[in-house]
Write a structure and sequence with these properties.
about 400 residues, Growth Hormone, Chain: A, 16 helices
């Protein structure tokens, strides 16, 4: 009898594991594809006969397209199904790269950037909608953390992978090979049979919640929260090496070691944050506490010339704490999302990342042009302090959390 009762539960657990692996693999593709074009800049510059300003404009086009389409894609994910949207995004990303590989020119580069931006806008709304609907509530934070960690890994392996492909197959070959990744993963998702998540499914089942306005004050605040997170990390991630070299007398290898420690510890922090998110309901307070300590550490880096060992340790600590808050960040959005609107909610707030991605290169580039390398870290501290305040503002009260939990139990 016990075996009979345990069988359905084991089958459900296995299905959740397959779903988590599949969705996390899709997120890996997202971060991998984001870095393919930047890693090919030397090849593209030579082949297209353009400067880095023209190449940088392609990345701006990517960021703007992704930012403008995140929220509409979230609405589509909730309306026609997150699974369909995700499969289309994976395929479209591959199409964008193979198109550039076959028709290498600057206009096609811009067109490819547009399609890559559109494909990138799919992942957060669709992935989080599926995870929110089908993961075990008690392990939701860990599911979010594994999903985020997979994205970090995709970004981490992209430079070496693209470099190896260029060395063995050339730039054209690298574009064609990397283009195959998206469609292959889409096929993998079809074979695995990932579940769907859409408002239409709940309406057919007769369990759809009354239509609610998704653009709530809480989600607006969380969108700003995501933007500040992007700004606080982008300065260190993109300009940390040149800032350490020009303002602190750190050598290029040492600065890269410090940045590697920051990025590597961020990935480890994400996994640790998943366990923490599953054992607390105070996600806003967790985020605020981690970023408050983070701000203090980065302030120390900004104001004191630390020995290399201490600098690396400080960078690693800052990266770890920045990673820890990622699952709590995602739980804040999930808690604020109306029932049946996870795709729209994550689509809206993820726009904040894109806004930060548009602003940060201009802001921190201007800071470096003004010969103020310490302010790369100093400005990051300012954004971190603002993030702490907003994290506390997004904390739900006990009654609100209880109501949100009840809604998810009624509309899983």
């Amino acid at each position: 009898m016990a075996d009979i009762l345990a069988a359905p539960q084991q089958a459900k657990t296995d299905e959740q594991l397959r779903t988590l692996v599949a969705i996390s693999t899709a997120h890996w593709v997202s971060h991998f594809h984001m870095l393919v074009l930047p890693m090919l800049f030397p090849f593209l510059k030579e082949q297209l006969g353009v400067g880095y300003i023209e190449l940088g404009f392609a990345l701006t086009v990517f960021a703007v397209t992704s930012g403008l389409t995140q929220a509409p894609i979230g609405y589509l994910a909730d309306h026609i199904g997150a699974r369909k949207i995700l499969l289309m995004g994976l395929t479209l990303g591959g199409l964008a790269l193979i198109m550039l590989g076959l028709h290498l020119s600057y206009p096609w580069l811009i067109a490819s950037a547009v399609l890559l931006g559109l494909a990138n806008s799919v992942y957060h709304p669709a992935n989080y909608a599926i995870l929110s609907a089908h993961m075990n509530e008690a392990r939701m934070g860990r599911a979010f953390s594994i999903h985020t960690f997979a994205g970090y890994v995709g970004g981490a392996v992209a430079p070496a992978t693209v470099a190896a492909l260029v060395a063995t197959t050339g730039g054209h070959g690298a574009l064609l090979v990397t283009s195959a990744v998206g469609p292959l993963v889409a096929l993998f998702l079809l074979v695995v049979g990932i579940p769907d998540a859409s408002a239409a499914d709940r309406q057919v089942a007769g369990t759809d919640a009354p239509r609610q306005n998704v653009i709530t004050p809480a989600l607006i605040v969380l969108t700003v929260f995501f933007m500040l997170l992007s700004l606080s990390n982008a300065g260190i991630g993109n300009f940390g090496v040149v800032a350490l070299m020009s303002g602190y007398g750190v050598t290029f290898p040492a600065a890269n070691i410090a940045l590697t420690a920051f990025l590597g510890a961020s990935a480890i922090g994400v996994l640790a944050g998943g366990f923490l998110a599953d054992h607390t309901t105070r996600h806003g307070q967790v985020a605020a506490a981690c970023f408050a300590v983070n701000a203090a550490i980065v302030f120390l880096i900004a104001t004191v010339s630390l020995p290399l060992l201490l600098l690396t340790a400080a960078m690693a600590s800052a990266g770890f704490l920045g990673g820890v808050i990622a699952p709590s960040r995602d739980m804040l959005v999930r808690n604020a999302a109306p029932a049946g609107a996870a795709g729209r909610a994550f689509g809206i707030v993820s726009t904040g990342f894109n806004i930060g991605g548009i602003i940060s290169p201009l802001l921190f580039g201007w800071i470096m042009d003004q010969n103020l390398p310490h302010w790369v870290f100093g400005a990051s501290v300012v954004f971190m302090v603002l993030t702490v305040l907003l994290a506390l503002a997004t904390e739900q009260g006990p009654q609100e959390r209880s109501a949100a939990s009840d809604a998810r139990m009624m509309h899983p």
